[in-house]
Write a structure and sequence with these properties.
This protein is an alpha+beta fold. It has 4 domains: 222 residues, 3-Layer(aba) Sandwich (Rossmann fold), CATH 3.40.50; 110 residues, Translation factors (Elongation Factor Tu (Ef-tu), domain 3); 102 residues, Rossmann fold (3-Layer(aba) Sandwich), CATH 3.40.50.10050; 114 residues, Beta Barrel (Elongation Factor Tu (Ef-tu), domain 3), CATH 2.40.30.10. Helix 1 crosses helix 2 and helix 10 packs parallel to helix 11. The protein is elongated. It starts with 5 loop residues before the first strand and ends in an 8-residue tail after the last helix. The C terminus is likely disordered.
């Protein structure tokens, strides 16, 4: 190929979804089918990817693609588990995937990783279709090779009802995420509505239709994007791995141009890009070949986009997943500057906030976005495992709500664990961003309530209560009687007074349903005991009582209490005439 020529590459298709919903089974079925259907050399396995040529797709789809011609060379499926590959594969801050398949177990519906995958697809504006998998597991489902519409119509009434209920539940969930969806054969415009394809990765039902839709969408909407130069290669790091006999290697997806086995390449790291020369370009042996464990890879002279490849090279220690790879042709300084710019997380930090750590650039970007959407302030972001320094920095935060680390798919290093035992910080370390955010919501609610309790315990709290004369359990020594908390709250030990400012005495105890409690809040009816009071003398039916609050406490409470409690303070102050808060 000349360095200036253009050609059409196959679209990169990411497969996402919740664990156990059938991502691997789906890809295994496609690989198995295309191996069976292929002519010699038609199926190719790459690192982290499976290339399905258009000829193999024609054979799998049969009459579905009869008389249809495509200029696409095929589809390149990314088969690294879960959504990690999707967020890792990035270019210029966006997703490298041209299309995606969201696998959902039709019987289980949406799960945490499904929601997460959906949010990430929306974030990167990637076109996708939903594969409603495991239709064969619907009780009574009758397998056939008909197209989906006919297969559904042929099911028994009760089976069809179950299928439709599960389908509508799925459509409803997608709708809650502000997207329209429907069975693919009901859709006239795939740009406005997400297509749902009922499939079984076990029996193969629906998979020909899914492949048909993918090539159709790619041909119709992506062809311009898929015209690429055959010049110096561009790629993205999928994983950094240690290989026996090779040392550090990188698994990469090449999405533009050509990489040759003797090329000098520039790769992004946490710091400055590394410039290194390729020692070997490696591809796995073909899928249908019996593998020799001693020779797992074929050494190749060059690779063309789009494909996956393992690169063996010196100086790969600091390379990070998601970093760009460029063949060093032309002005080296310009190539280095471009790689550095694309590796940098372009994000403005706050003076105060939490720390975020993640395993790849893409997952870090996704976690930053989710945090920002919740209004969470972020002080530091970084790629890699949690270090002792991270713990110290988080613990140094002035606000207790910032003593927090969001960690996505990383480890806590031994010295960090030791430091953590002496620090007052919280770490949410998960491999699902959705779970981190759920844990945060639960934590922040409890943490705020705890801080509020601690803060309020330093002051006498305003309370307003009504004496219930029908509930007098003891007239005196001490007086024990029922009250309703009209506003605010009461606690043991606080002094009560009447509207005229006359102090009755301190609450010795509070009981609710024959159990002693420390505190009672607005709306509760409880029994209280007060020494030095006689019911019928100092206390009469219908009396309204207030907590006595020292002036210093009232001033501090002014900015802390809710509007209902504020009125109590105002009433109390007006009637007691001891001190006054003008506004509240």
């Amino acid at each position: 190929m000349s360095s200036s020529s253009k050609y059409i590459r196959q679209p990169i298709v990411s497969v996402l979804g919740h664990v156990d919903h059938g991502k691997t089974s789906f890809l295994d079925y496609i690989r198995g089918t295309t191996v069976v259907a292929r002519e010699s050399g038609a199926i190719t396995q790459h690192i982290g990817a499976t290339e399905v040529p258009i000829d193999a797709i024609y054979k799998v789809c049969g009459d579905l693609l009869k008389d249809k011609k495509f200029t696409l060379p095929g589809l390149l499926f990314i088969d690294t588990p879960g959504h990690h590959a999707f967020t890792t594969l990035r270019t210029r801050g966006g997703s490298l995937s041209d299309l995606a398949v969201l696998i959902v177990d039709i019987n289980e519906g949406f799960k945490p990783q499904t929601y997460e995958s959906l949010r990430i697809l929306k974030q990167y504006k990637t076109p996708f279709i939903v594969a409603a998998n495991k239709i064969d597991a619907i009780s009574g489902w009758k397998t056939s090779k008909d197209i989906a519409k006919t297969r559904i119509e042929k099911q028994r009434v009760n089976v069809k009802t179950i299928f439709e209920e599960k389908l509508y539940e799925m459509i409803g969930t997608i709708s809650e995420n502000k997207l329209n969806s429907d069975l693919y054969f009901n859709i006239s415009d795939f740009r406005k509505t997400i297509g749902i394809v009922p499939i079984s990765a076990k029996t193969g039902e629906g998979i020909p239709e899914l492949l048909m839709i993918l090539v159709g969408l790619a041909q119709r909407f992506l062809e311009d994007k898929l015209h690429i130069e055959s010049g110096p290669g561009k790629g993205s790091v999928l994983e950094v791995k240690e290989e026996v006999g090779l040392g550090k290697t990188i698994d990469a997806i090449v999405y533009n141009g050509t990489i040759k086995s003797n090329d000098k390449i520039v790769i992004g790291t946490k710091d400055d890009p590394v410039v290194t020369r390729i020692k070997a370009l490696l591809k796995p042996k073909p899928l249908d070949e019996i593998r020799d464990p001693r020779e797992r890879f074929d050494n190749v002279n060059e690779v063309h986009a789009a494909c996956g490849v393992k690169i063996s090279s010196p100086d790969l220690e600091n390379v990070i997943p998601g970093a760009p790879i460029r063949v060093a042709k032309g002005n080296l300084e310009e190539v280095i500057a471009e790689v550095k710019k694309q590796t940098k997380i372009d994000f403005e930090l706050d003076e105060q906030g939490i720390l975020i750590k993640a395993d790849t650039i893409g997952s870090l970007e996704a976690l930053i976005k989710e945090s920002r959407d919740k209004g969470i302030k972020i002080r530091k972001v970084d790629i890699g495992n949690i270090s002792k320094r991270d713990i110290i920095e988080a613990d140094a935060s002035l606000h207790p709500l910032n003593k927090l680390i969001f960690a996505f798919n990383v480890k806590i290093l031994p010295d960090a664990k030791e430091e953590l035992s002496n620090a007052d910080i919280t770490i949410f370390n998960e491999d699902v961003i959705y779970t981190i955010m759920e844990n945060y919501d639960e934590w922040i609610e409890k943490k705020k309530a705890m801080l509020e309790r601690e803060r309020r315990q330093e002051f006498t709290h305003p309370g307003m209560l009504k004496f219930l004369p029908e509930y007098v359990f003891r007239v005196s020594h001490p007086a024990v009687f029922g009250v309703r908390i009209i506003g605010g709250r009461i606690k043991t030990g606080i002094r009560l007074m009447k509207e005229d400012g006359k102090v009755l005495g301190s609450i010795k105890g509070i009981q609710s349903e024959n159990k002693s409690i420390e505190e009672a809040i607005q709306g509760q009816e409880v029994a209280i005991s007060i020494e030095g009071v006689t019911v019928g003398r100092q206390l009469k039916g219908g009396d309204i009582l207030y907590t006595e609050i020292p002036a210093s406490d009232a001033k501090k409470l002014r900015d802390m209490i809710n509007s209902g409690e504020c009125k109590i303070l105002i009433i109390f102050n007006k009637n007691s005439n001891k001190y006054l808060i003008n506004t509240c």
